[in-house]
Amino acid sequence: MAVKNLPREELVRQGSGGCPGCPSSLALRITLKALGKNTVFAIPACCAVVCLGAYPKTAFDVPVVSIAFEAAAAAASGLCAGLKRQGKQDTNVVVWAGDGGTYDIGLQALSGAVERETDFIYICYNNEMYSNTGIQRSGATPYGAWTTTTWTGKTEQKKDMPAILRAHGLPYMATAVPGYPEDLFRKVRKAMSIRGSKYIEILAPCPPGWRFPMDKTVEMSKLAVDTGAWALYEYENGQLNFNLKSKSILEKKTEPKPIEEYLKLQGRFAHLFKPERNKQVLDEIQERSHADWERFRKQVECGVA
């Protein structure tokens, strides 16, 4: 579906308090166009629940349960049970959470909900740090990145949360970026058509946290795909299927751009280029990306996700 053919109705109203260029707000608009009004959200502590405001002045045009940081998936489980008791099994129950509430603080509730095969869609908008509370490192923060708690650069690799969710055996999982709204829309629609637990992770380049101009959000998300720093794919019925540019990279029809082109535009990696280029760390990041793609190729070839 072309962008011009997306539903015209907006379920995120005017008055959002998000930063200019906020990737979460952009992705949320596309997601709600796919979901429609028959939707209820559970949102833990994160940028989205703060920026979109509190009742009665919320910018959401669907019901929202604002829940504690660690409990979004548990709240969604309760919503599913309550709606089922009322005979409302066609309502979309959705968690909208950041990486802090997914990779770290909310992981136990998410794992439990998926193990119970809760019929919901869990969407993580991953800005790779705790942006709402002051730009601290999270389990999703990439190696080498500056945050206020890794001010010389993070020394650990980030978690592979999509792989952790695939290990739960859920029926559908996908990745997306706000720069390809049609792809995100299609994946949300597909998740709606499948029973059981579904997980979608959206890379959310955060202008103030990543330190890039606020008008470059879409460009940054596309560059993440072009350099292979972020892979677009779906996991369904035990199979991985790659999408758009990521499919070409996987099949070696397209060579990914050097990952430095992605990193050098982000102030959080500026220390790797000043006063001189930190070749060792940059090479490690590039080698890790190559290794990730070789792993993807082997998984696709062997049919093991």
Description:
The chain is an alpha/beta fold. Helix content is 37%, strand content 13%. An 8-stranded mixed β-sheet has the order 2-1-3-4-6-5-7-8, sandwiched between helices. The longest helix is centred in the C-terminal third of the chain and has 24 residues, at 279-302. The two termini are 28 Å apart.
Order of the strands making up the biggest sheet: 2-1-3-4-6-5-7-8
| Cα gyration radius (Å) | 19 Å
CATH superfamily: Thiamin diphosphate (ThDP)-binding fold, Pyr/PP domains
* Derived structural class: alpha/beta
What would CATH call the class? Alpha Beta
Pattern of helices and strands: HEHEHEHHEHEHEHHEEHHH
Question: What is the CA–CA distance across the termini?
Answer: 28 Å
Taking all residues together, what is the mean pLDDT? 94
Largest sheet: 8 strands, mixed
Keywords:
305 residues, Rossmann fold, eight-stranded mixed beta sheet, 8 strands, 12 helices, alpha/beta
Layout of helices and strands:
Elements (H helix, E strand, L loop, with lengths): L22 H13 L3 E5 L3 H5 L12 E3 L5 H14 L6 E7 L1 H5 L2 H9 L5 E6 L34 H6 L5 E5 L4 H12 L5 E6 L3 H4 L6 H10 L6 E4 L2 E4 L1 H7 L9 H4 L15 H24 L3
Parallel strand pairs: 1-2, 1-3, 3-4, 4-6, 5-6
Antiparallel strand pairs: 5-7, 7-8
Helix pairs in contact: 1-7, 3-5
